[in-house]
Amino acid sequence: MYLKRLDLQGFKSFPEKVKLEFNPGITAVVGPNGSGKSNVSDAVRWVLGEQRAKSLRGDKMEDVIFAGTESRKPQGFAEVTIVIDNQDGRMPVEFTEVQVTRRVFRSGESEYRINGAACRLKDIQELFMDTGVGREGYSIVGQGRIDEILNAKGEERRRIFEEATGIVKYKTRKIEATNK
Ligand code: ATP
Ligand code: MG
Question: Of the ligands numbered here, which is closest to the C-alpha atom of 62?
Answer without folding.
Answer: 1
